[in-house]
Amino acid sequence: MTSGLSAGLAAQRRAFLDDGPPDAALRRNRIDRLMAMILDNAEDFVTATATDYGSRSRSAAFFAEILGMISVIEHTRAHVPQWMKSTKLMRAARAVRLRAEVVPSPLGVVGIIGPWNFPIQLTVLPAAAAFAAGNRVMIKMSEVTPCTAALMAATAPRYFDTRELHVVTGGPDIAAEFAGLPFDHLFFTGSPTIGARVHQAAARNLVPVTLELGGKNPVVVSSDADVTRAATRIAQARMVNGGQVCVCPDYVFVPDPRVDRFVEVARRTLHGLFPTIIDNVDYCSSVNQANFERVVGLIDDARAHGARIDSVVPDGEVLPDTRSRKIAPTLIRGVDDRMRIAHEEVFGPVLVVHGYSTVDETIDYINERPSPLVAYWFGPDNADFRHFMSRTRSGGVARNDFAAHMIPSSAPFGGVGRSGMGAYHGKAGFDTFSHRRTVVGTDLSFSITGRAALPFTRSMRVSADLVLRRARSRTALRIKKFR
């Protein structure tokens, strides 16, 4: 028995070639049907994700999975006709019958491999961008959230012909086969480790990839920040989706004299947010036993190596709790490079707290490690912030609020280095799934490029020598002025 993936890809590619590039109206219609597929069945999708997790806030899921993507998709839909327009080049040359333009062209069939932490939003958003660019789409849903995957696969055919949108489910073997298909573009959201495997599989067919990965996102609380406000917001941000978010803060630098105050406020905030945990339906579980054990293992390893563990456990409860897969919010101090948590992305309700004396100390620490998906700064937009921003590298920068770099619907979202390659959201998504095709035509009576072919006359050689001397002179003069 075969999975039928190759046949699905072949059917989509045949339909793409037969029908030709879709116009703006059809692209928008596909985006509208994609939105309707989710909005019409929002309750079912939210219920499915809660079933997959075991415990997940209905309100949080609605906001993160459903409502949070609407503005980005609406922005994309509104700009489709504008982004489809060709860019005219050398406008003055039209007077002599030379025309040049760059035409955004659909790639063909886009493959999307979705993650488990936001299995709806993080498949629908790239699919909307791919539709805007005029492509067909195949989605591989995560096997870690099987209820959501099954619902998506069952719902999609009510809104799409499979030659437009084809949703695939299955385990790691199907995922590996999917990654190895000869798509025209492959989009993956997940961990750097799996992202590397996806990249290798795609490379065998020279398939271009966009990788939206994770990383250990740093936070710096500046010396002139409001430490109470910073600690409150950072503690809240760490607990979004139980800490299972690629843009969650992972570790925080606090000025040495203010570390105790920061921890005190963070503890108080977490106690207030979660007076109960085990039976609290709004407290998000670890998605599965493997992730639960991994996060508990990170805490235990840090404790064994001498770190100071501060678990915020409600009175009368014993955590971590294997049955509910819930781990108490945990603050850890005294982390050093011997500990796994210093190197692994936590992806759980754990925040590491470091003290620091100078901003350059935090910059050096961050730069010695792989580039994160986002770097956070709490404090004013001053010289220290600008110095920090210019001397570090990250996918985005957010100041004074969780995921603030994602607020503008038109802003590109993506990582750099080990946190990802490529970007989407807004026009960046349209460009990711388009080929910018240069088209130049001439109706001149002579060949502009004919000088590159034989015969080479004496006048051509004299002209070439003159151009070379002038270019040398200009370059030398610019270098001299710089000095």
Short description:
InterPro entries: Ald_DH/histidinol_DH, Ald_DH_C, Ald_DH_CS_GLU, Ald_DH_N, Aldehyde_DH_dom, Aldehyde_DH_NAD(P). This protein is of the alpha/beta class.
If you average the pLDDT, what whole number results?
96
Give the count of structural domains: 2
Taking the sheet with the most strands, its summary is: 7 strands, mixed
Shape: globular
The share of residues in extended strands comes to: 15-25%
Reported by name, the CATH topology of the largest domain is Aldehyde Dehydrogenase, Chain A, domain 1
The CATH class of the largest domain, by name, is: Alpha Beta
The termini sit apart by: 70 Å
Give unreliable regions as ranges. Answer: none
Beta strands, count = 16
Question: Layout of helices and strands, plus pairs?
Answer:
Elements: H1 5-19, H2 24-39, H3 42-53, H4 58-84, E1 87-89, E2 98-106, E3 109-113, H5 121-132, E4 136-140, H6 146-155, E5 165-168, H7 172-179, E6 185-189, H8 192-203, E7 209-212, E8 217-221, H9 227-238, E9 249-255, H10 259-273, H11 289-304, E10 308-311, E11 330-333, E12 350-356, H12 359-367, E13 374-378, H13 383-391, E14 396-399, E15 420-421, H14 426-432, E16 434-442, H15 458-482
Parallel strand pairs: 3-4, 3-6, 4-5, 6-7, 8-9, 8-13, 9-12, 11-12, 13-14
Antiparallel strand pairs: 1-2, 2-16, 7-15, 10-11
Helix pairs in contact: 2-4, 2-5, 3-4, 3-6, 4-5, 5-14, 9-10
Protein name: Aldehyde dehydrogenase
Keywords: Oxidoreductase
Active site: 212, 246
